[in-house]
């Protein structure tokens, strides 16, 4: 605080000293801030630090605004000293330039450990927050020292000693040296019980996290924290069985320090007083007028005469309070008294409720955001000052904030307002990087030993550009046969409303392959329009469709250039049942193909029509979506439904294709199991189902080219069937794709183990929907690893493929499971 007061005095003195007597000393007051700059930066980037303060540019200078800026500068904890200077922003002193001369805190050059014989450097580094090349932070430094000690305590090193020191290097950087004296590890040799007459030792041990040391099965590591956890777990177990007086009176310890040279062997004896078993005698509620007694009692999942499950009863009492809380009654007084009949061994309860008026939100306070502006957060909240408090709206608001992917943590809090029945809602956030670099693989469509069939791409995107919540991205593809560049920008809250606007620009050049039709017979445009393409060496469309494969000798190569620009807009509504989004957009493009027409003639008329001249390729689209997923990028529950309609060929007579496309998508997520196993990990299984129904309909008598038709790509639809896309007779105007996945998060929000099963079918026309049968489906299944990090949405899968033909099961290779490796991605639908 003294430093900040001094900074203000220095600023005022400098401001005053820069003026002559004829200029008012407070000339800068209420003048617009033209710029905010920093001098003395060495390791902190100018873009990063100045970007945090762009929102202040244009605002009028006041003492309160200056204090706010200064608070944010010190909050980033990058600087030891900050000297402010106010300078005229123009010759007439109508604007102010704020210049901060800073002295950075030192950079951490190395983090060293000594004495760590049993724990590796990498396992310790995972626990500490400071990293090499970070700017030194005193608070994090002390927290990290405690974290290293806690890690050893978790591993059973009860006598560990951890100290640390800072070493200053010649270049001004520092090394952090952690000095560790590990001591001997304490492991549990035996766990015994005294006083347990109802439940045996084997039953009680199942409720505990501490385990006896057993080779290959349990390390037997002892920690004080788990001991306290197990005492509570044993009490909870007895309480569920009606023994409401049960308690662990003490835990006796016997330590053997001599039998093992590197371990202390600990014997634990839990002394238990069980008490008597009680039954539930019912609950009486008084003082309630807003909600009926029947409605409140329905929250208690016990009936008179049941064994008294104290944990379930407590949940019921909590649910009664939440009915009021959910509807804005946060100030109610609820008193619960028990009436015990020792002779009958029953317990009944009396709940007295003193109802208060509903609580209103007085202020919304945002904390923890350094980059993201407050308005980006508050606009995602489903409440505002003056509203009646609602718990469900608060939970939906937290979901909205998580779905932005700007924050790793969102924690709400409540504090009393200035008057009774007024509360302040505090939203504490922890920011994470919203910028990402993604790597991916796309198929070029080639199937030749002399060509490279994959295109590698790198994509940069910042979903929170300059902290305004805008998304700005650039994608570059470079490979022997594909080069492309895409720029995109979107604003999801245009003019302060949930109206989105966006644009994208794309330029690409590709070397593509297609099949020829330059051997007799030559099929003219009329035959193409009626039947479709017939490549060499086939004599009819029917002969081509009946063939098993095509010889690569009849393929040809051609080049394609495309330039396109697109604009889109959308609007969101936030009713209780789901987020409703309506979108639409236009895309205009110019495309041109090149090949040697003296040598080749493509079988695809669309390719021929675009040879040697620029041709328009435009479309207009609209979509509507219902979204009730908890997290859109790694969902555990909820649903998603969408319908997108696209019309291709919006300029008559200037384009080569005119058709209509419909895409209907559905997602459903159900959490089957969520069982806490450790303090920071739960055994979780999520069942996810996906369905896509797409079809194309030509406009008038136009023919849809093979390159525009639907096909099974083997990456997203029919995973594992990577051989189908190379033959155009496998394309169609109707596709149904279904997927079922069993997901098990290994590290929530990072990586998951999945098992999938896909079924996809292609038919020539929409009218063939009624002819669809199981023989038309391509099936695949297998395990996979899914990265659920939004910045790295990669999937590594092993797929087995099969079909059902005439009621018989057939592997694709005719022999057995083939375990095809599939590289795919987790695409998020919006």
Task: Describe what you observe in this structure.
This protein has 830 residues and is α+β, with helices and mostly antiparallel strands. It folds into six domains: 2-104, Ubiquitin-like (UB roll); 108-181, Ubiquitin-like (UB roll); 185-273, membrane protein fhac (Ubiquitin-like (UB roll)); 279-354, Ubiquitin-like (UB roll), CATH 3.10.20.310; 360-431, Ubiquitin-like (UB roll), CATH 3.10.20; 619-830, membrane protein fhac: a member of the omp85/tpsb transporter family (Porin). The protein is 17% helix and 42% strand. It contains 14 helices and 33 strands. It has an 18-stranded antiparallel β-sheet that branches. The protein has a three-stranded mixed β-sheet with strand order 1-3-2. Strand 17 and strand 18 (470-478) form a beta hairpin. The longest helix is centred in the N-terminal third of the chain and has 17 residues, at 138-154.
What is this entry, summarized?
The protein has an 18-stranded antiparallel sheet that branches. A 3-stranded mixed sheet has the order 1-3-2. A 3-stranded mixed sheet has the order 4-6-5, covered by helices on one side. It is built from 14 helices and 33 strands. It is an alpha+beta fold and 830 residues long.
The CATH architecture designation of the largest domain is Beta Barrel
N-C termini distance: 47 Å
Average pLDDT reading: 87
CATH topology of the largest domain: Porin
Number of strands: 33
Number of spatially distinct domains: 6
* Radius of gyration, whole Å: 34 Å
Regions with little confidence, pLDDT below 50 for 5+ residues = 1-21, 442-453
Helix content: 10-25%
At the fourth level of CATH, the homologous superfamily of the largest domain is membrane protein fhac: a member of the omp85/tpsb transporter family
Binned strand content? 35-45%
Summed up, the helix count is: 14
Shape: globular
**Assembly category:** single chain
Largest sheet: 18 strands, antiparallel
CATH top level label of the largest domain: Mainly Beta
- What structural class is derived from the secondary structure elements? alpha+beta
């Amino acid at each position: 605080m003294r430093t900040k007061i001094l900074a203000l005095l220095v600023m005022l003195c400098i401001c005053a000293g820069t003026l002559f007597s004829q200029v008012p000393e407070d000339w800068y007051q209420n003048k617009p801030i033209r710029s905010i700059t920093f001098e003395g930066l060495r390791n902190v980037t100018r873009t990063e630090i100045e970007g945090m303060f762009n929102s202040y540019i244009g605002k009028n200078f006041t003492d309160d605004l200056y204090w706010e800026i200064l608070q944010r500068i010190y909050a980033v904890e990058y600087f030891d000293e900050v000297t402010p200077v106010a300078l005229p922003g123009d010759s007439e002193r109508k604007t102010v330039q704020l210049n901060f001369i800073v002295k950075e805190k030192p950079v951490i050059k190395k983090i060293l450990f000594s004495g760590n014989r049993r724990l590796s450097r990498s396992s310790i580094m995972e626990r500490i927050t400071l990293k090499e090349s970070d700017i030194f932070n005193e608070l994090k430094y002390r927290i990290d020292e405690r974290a290293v000690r806690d890690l050893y305590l978790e591993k059973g090193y009860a006598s560990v000693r951890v100290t640390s020191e800072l070493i200053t290097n010649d270049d001004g950087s520092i090394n952090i040296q952690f000095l560790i004296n590990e001591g001997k590890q304490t492991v549990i040799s035996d766990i015994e019980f005294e006083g347990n007459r109802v439940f045996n030792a084997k039953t009680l041990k199942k409720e505990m996290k501490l385990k006896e040391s057993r080779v290959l099965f349990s390390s037997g590591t002892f920690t004080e924290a788990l001991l306290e956890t197990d005492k509570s777990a044993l009490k909870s177990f007895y309480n569920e069985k009606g023994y409401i007086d049960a308690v662990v009176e003490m835990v006796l310890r016997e330590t053997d320090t001599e039998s093992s040279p590197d371990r202390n062997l600990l014997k634990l004896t839990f002394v238990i007083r069980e008490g008597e078993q009680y039954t539930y005698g019912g609950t009486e509620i008084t003082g309630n007028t807003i909600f009926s007694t029947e409605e409140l009692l329905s929250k208690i999942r016990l009936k008179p005469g049941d064994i008294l499950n104290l944990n379930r009863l407590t949940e019921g009492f909590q649910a009664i309070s939440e009915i009021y809380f959910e509807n804005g009654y946060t100030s109610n007084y609820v008193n619960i008294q028990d009436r015990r009949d020792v002779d009958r061994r029953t317990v009944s309860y009396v709940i007295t409720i003193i109802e208060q008026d509903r609580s209103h939100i007085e202020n919304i306070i945002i904390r923890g955001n350094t980059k993201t502006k407050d308005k980006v957060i508050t606009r995602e909240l489903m409440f505002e000052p003056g509203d009646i408090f609602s718990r469900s709206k608060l939970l939906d608001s937290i979901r909205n904030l998580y779905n932005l992917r700007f924050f790793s943590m969102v924690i709400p809090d409540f504090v009393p307002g200035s008057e009774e029945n007024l509360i302040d809602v505090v939203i504490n956030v922890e920011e994470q990087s919203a910028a990402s670099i993604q790597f991916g693989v796309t198929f070029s469509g080639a199937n030749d030993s002399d060509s490279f069939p994959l295109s590698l791409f790198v994509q940069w995107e910042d979903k929170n550009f300059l902290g305004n919540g805008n998304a700005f991205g650039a994608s570059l593809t470079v490979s022997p046969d594909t080069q492309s560049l895409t720029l995109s920008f979107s604003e999801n809250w245009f003019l302060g409303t949930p109206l989105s606007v966006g644009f994208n620009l794309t330029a690409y050049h590709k070397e593509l392959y297609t099949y020829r039709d330059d051997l007799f017979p030559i099929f003219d445009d009329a035959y193409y329009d009626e039947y479709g393409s017939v490549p060499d060496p086939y004599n009819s469309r029917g002969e081509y469709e009946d063939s098993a494969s095509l010889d690569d000798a009849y393929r040809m190569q051609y080049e394609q250039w495309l330039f396109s620009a697109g604009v889109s807009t959308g609007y969101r509504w936030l009713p209780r049942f789901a987020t409703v989004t309506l979108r639409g957009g236009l895309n205009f493009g110019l495309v041109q193909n090149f090949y040697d027409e003296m040598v080749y003639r493509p079988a695809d008329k669309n390719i021929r029509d675009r040879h040697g001249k620029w041709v328009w390729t435009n479309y207009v689209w609209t979509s509507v979506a219902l979204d009730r997923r908890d997290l859109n990028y790694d969902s555990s529950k909820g649903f998603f439904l969408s319908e997108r309609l696209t019309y291709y060929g919006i300029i008559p007579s200037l384009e080569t294709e005119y058709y209509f496309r419909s895409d209907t998508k559905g997602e459903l997520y159900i959490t089957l199991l969520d069982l806490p196993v450790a303090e920071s990990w739960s055994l979780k299984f999520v069942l996810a189902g996906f369905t896509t129904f797409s079809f194309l309909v030509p406009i008038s008598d136009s023919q849809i080219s093979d390159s525009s038709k639907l096909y099974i790509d083997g990456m997203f639809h029919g995973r594992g069937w990577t051989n189908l896309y190379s033959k155009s007779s496998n394309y169609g105007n109707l596709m149904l794709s279904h997927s079922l996945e069993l997901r098990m998060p290994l590290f929530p929000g990072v990586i998951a183990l999945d098992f999938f099963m896909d079924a996809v079918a292609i038919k020539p026309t929409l009218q063939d929907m009624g002819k669809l049968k199981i023989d038309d489906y391509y099936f695949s299944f297998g395990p996979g690893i899914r990265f659920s990090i939004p910045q790295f949405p990669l999937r590594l899968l092993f797929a087995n493929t099969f079909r059902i033909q005439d009621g018989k099961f057939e592997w694709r290779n005719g022999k057995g499971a083939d375990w095809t490796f599939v590289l795919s991605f987790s695409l998020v639908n919006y």
